[in-house]
Design brief:
With 182 residues, the chain is of the alpha+beta class. It has helices spanning 21-28, 31-34, 44-53, 109-124, 139-147, and strands spanning 6-7, 11-15, 64-72, 78-86, 93-100, 129-134, 151-162, 165-175. The protein has a single domain (6-178), classed as Aminopeptidase (3-Layer(aba) Sandwich), CATH 3.40.630. The chain starts with 5 loop residues before the first strand and ends in a 7-residue tail after the last strand. Bound molecules: coenzyme A.
């Protein structure tokens, strides 16, 4: 499987590199950005090790997460990242996660990036279904998923033990047959 290089109007999405370590660590260390995220890299070293551990993992490998950088086309600046999960047992289904640095939020970058990713997953890879799992208190993520036209499919009550408490989990999804390419 060739490595994706997804271009949108303002962004380039491609593999997260070791040279992204500092920028990634900086925006992911922000308490608001990491509030609903299971991000276990608490230092620059750990962040670098995490990026490095994915170095040899190819896109679309069952049972793996692939981390895509969200870079400004104009300057190359890293403004966020997308997590793309290829579940081991479901090769035609994909889970997505998203993060945008606080200083770059609310400018449409997540909408643009996930739209580009969905075009790639459905249009190029012919995946059947894409889903995302969010905490219902995560208003920004819910707004993003609704804006993308993803359907709220399930609300699991206190189904996850997360950061010391039982939390709810809401699942959004969209099918290839429902996706209108941009
Ligand atoms: C969720 C997130 C990626 C959105 O990124 P973004 O680039 O700001 O999103 P966009 O600018 O594309 O906005 C998408 C929609 O969300 C809305 N939105 C963005 N931030 C919002 C907020 N804090 N509260 C309410 N709505 C918000 C926007 O208004 C827009 O909706 P609209 O088109 O109907 O106006 C970003 O808030 C983030 O990184 N959050 C922290 C990480 C996180 O929790 N990730 C998800 C884990 S599952």
């Amino acid at each position: 499987m060739s490595e994706p290089e997804i271009l949108t109007e303002r962004l380039l999405l491609n593999r997260l590199l070791l040279s992204d370590t500092e920028a990634l660590f900086e925006y992911r260390s922000d308490a608001e950005v990491s509030r609903y995220q299971d991000w276990a890299t608490h230092s620059l070293d750990e962040t670098a090790r995490s990026i490095d551990s994915h170095r040899s993992v190819a896109f679309d490998t069952p049972g793996t997460w692939f981390q895509l950088a969200m870079r400004l086309r104009e300057s190359g600046l890293l403004v966020g990242d997308l997590g793309v999960h290829f579940p081991a047992e479901e090769p035609q289904q994909v889970e997505v996660g998203f993060t945008v640095a606080a200083s770059h939020q609310r400018r449409g970058f997540a909408s643009e990036a996930v739209t580009g990713l969905l075009d790639h997953l459905f249009g190029t890879l012919r995946k059947h279904r894409v889903f995302a799992s969010v905490d219902p208190r995560n208003a920004a993520s819910i707004a993003l998923l609704e804006r993308l036209g993803m359907r709220r499919e399930a609300h699991f009550r206190e189904s996850l033990w997360f950061k010391g408490e039982w939390v709810d989990d809401v699942v959004f999804a969209i099918l290839e047959s429902e996706w209108a390419p941009s």
